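To fix ideas, we reproduce below one chain and its tokenised fold.
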Amino acid sequence: MTKSSEPLKADKQICVGTVTGPHGLKGDVKIKSFTENPRDVAAFGPVTNKSGKQTFNVSVISANQKGLVAELSGVRGREAAEAIRGLDLYIPRDLLPELDKSEFYYSDLIGLRVEDINGEVVGVVILIDNYGAGEIMEVNLKDGRMEMFQMSQEVVPEIDLKNGRIVVNPPTEVFVDENQDREVTEEG
């Protein structure tokens, strides 16, 4: 682990993985990679913590369906590896390949306004993740609740990066009025 002289600005970095815990006794760590090819977490050079103040060189030891096992420079011993459990690993955004106009990185969607198909604002994107059954978009709704939407063409018909918005067409049960549910229950 080394200190970086100039921390990265949050909008200029991309999270490429998270340390999920220690592996063994000598300080190796398990990493959940967010890159298309999991081993690419180490392909762009050193990674940093979110503030950019800690820098690690990553050496991938092995990979399987559960994630990676890697050595991070400066992390020695199981206790040191345990201490960085949950650490997100970042790289500078400009190291990533340029994308076609129809492509995007998950991080491009965080903070975008979410509208329904009628143009009504329903919330803001807080997370994009894949829990094993496809990509899921988590949205902080206007009323303070959180809702998850499957990232499919049917549910998310439009991603408009230029105007900072995403259009959703969720199944009707997602936005059912609570009072309507109570009335049906009381009548039934």
